[in-house]
Hints:
Chain A: It is found in: Cell membrane. By secondary structure, chain A is an all-alpha fold. Chain A has helices spanning 25-48, 54-74, 84-94, 104-138, 151-163, 174-195, 200-225, 228-238, 247-266, 268-273, 278-283, 288-310, 316-328, 332-356, 365-387. The model of chain A is unreliable at 1-53 (pLDDT under 50). Chain B is of the alpha/beta class. Chain B is built from nine helices and twelve strands. Chain B has a six-stranded mixed sheet, with helices on both faces. Chain B has a four-stranded antiparallel sheet with strand order 2-1-4-5, covered by helices on one side. The interface between A and B is large, with 31 and 40 residues.
Amino acid sequence: MSATAPPQPDPAAPSQAPDPAGREPRWRGRSVASGLRGRAGGGLRGRAAGGGAARPWLLGAAGAAALLLSIAVAITIGPADLALRDVYAVVAQQLGLGDAGVTRIEEGIVWELRLPRTLLAAVCGAGLAICGAILQSLLRNPLADPFVLGISSGASTGAVLVVVAGVGGGAIALSGGAFAGALAAFALVLALAAAAGGGPDRVVLAGVAGTQLFAAVTTFVVFSSADAEQTRGVLFWLLGSLGGAGWGDVALCGAVCALGLALCLTQADALDAFAFGEDAAATLGVAVRRVRALLLATTALLAAVLVSAAGAIGFVGLVLPHAARILVGPVHRRLLPITALAGAIFLVWVDTAARTLFEPQELPVGVVTALLGVPAFALILARRGRAA
Amino acid sequence: MTLAAREVSWSAGGRLIVDGVSVALRDGETLGLLGPNGSGKSSLLRLLAGLRGTDGGAVLLDGRELRTLRRGEVARRVAVVEQQASTEVDLTAEQVVRLGRIPHRGSWSGDADADARAVERALAETGTSALRDRRWRTLSGGEQQRVQIARALAQEPRELLLDEPTNHLDVRHQLDLLALVGRLPLTTVVALHDLNLAALFCDRVIVLRAGRLVSAGRPADVLTPALIADVYEVAAEVLPDAAGPGRPAIRFLAPSAYASPPDARSCQPSR
């Protein structure tokens, strides 16, 4: 599964030019990932010295190029046997550049299925990774992410209550239920953590408790009232799926994600100031309570919107911020954009793998993120252990 | 004009921790904050830093109430060094020092040259320039405290508050650190456990007991056997001018219950 491994620094890896499209999907994924690796490896050493201004920009530009390239390659891959030329002709036609001369079905596959799905993967990857980075810094806990803190399982409970138990009487969509569930779960976890004393470890303990509770409620609802068909559909959604993505999802999630990132960037210095705790941040002039409330609310909203569109995709928020820190260091002004890019590239390739590896069967994308995320996380833990 | 506390009180969990303390700092002095565990030293320091709001009385910065000032404005005047800072974040020493520039920056912009100059000066003044690329978490306790002081200096404050900065350091690093603090041209408040260090480095000391101020003045005037017996409940002999003019040295006298002679056999090198 090295095809879609998250970018890791590896100064030894040569900087490869991406493969010309047309080879097997596994190989394409690998070449883009190692292309990023090669560039990143060069930037790593320079950064330790406080970071010249040029290298982060270079890395950011390389990341943006890699993301565009990833999307361009990912939309050429899929069960339907479309010629490369036709795929780009459809995109060009939709952008108003000439006539593609392809069938409506082919046009639909590219423009209504593959492209929105790939873009939604990029947006979700970016957004979830940002959520993870913010939560880890704010709560001073390297284990914090939307999944661990119960936001995702709360969304699942909300979605199941709407779809299976019929809460809302049909007036609320699945995504509405997921959104409400995510916010409720996060509020509960934070309240529980505050009641338990509010330390960084308490938040994760409260998250574990919340996750278990909401998982139990979800299972209870599914078992007590779902039929077989509903159960299968819900389970698939619970594990994360970008399958039903449309342009509406892309627009909503993209806008929320862009706003969230912009807002977090205005607080980048304040996030740095939290490194030594809340009192230390306050002595550096940060309005601790206001910044905390603002960023927690932003994170919860962002995660809720993404989870309601794409299901509970775990480990992106946990692992990608750590990978990005290895690349550019912990200073948020540089870290947040790189985290977003890394998350986007990662999820584009993970989703491509999820929908093609076992075609015509489709793997839930959350399964693939976990299969990749857990070993990656173990590596990060081991690396931290050595560094300390 | 500098920091002053006027009749400040603060309670936590229904218990009065700081009880009507008044103290006015003098420009450029090093003030020692003394008292046994739980006497309210750290809490008073937090009140002076504006990290906690007073329940009674007021903290004044240049005669203006601290609580009415913006946090950023306070951070450009008053810097704080904690007993032992810890972080999960893998910052380099220089990045830690750079944190001190945050109060001088807006959301986006800032004077990059001024930032760089202040960071260089802070590193040079604390003798930590050679540590700049080291990861903060791999530094020794003494190095970490020096880097934290460099971070505080990068804030370009006029007042520096230190909460038991020598607690986790060996003797040599305790002396080095306080000598460094004493050299700085700042108004400094330092909470200390060690009365000899206070006598050696402070221009003035104040002594707290159970949240109340019991004595204030020059070390030679305050640190008497009677006060030490009264506040710390130990017998002590004070040797005037033993650590320099006006700087007494204190020798604690073990209570007779502890004073059995060392066991000669167990002191033999075991070969």
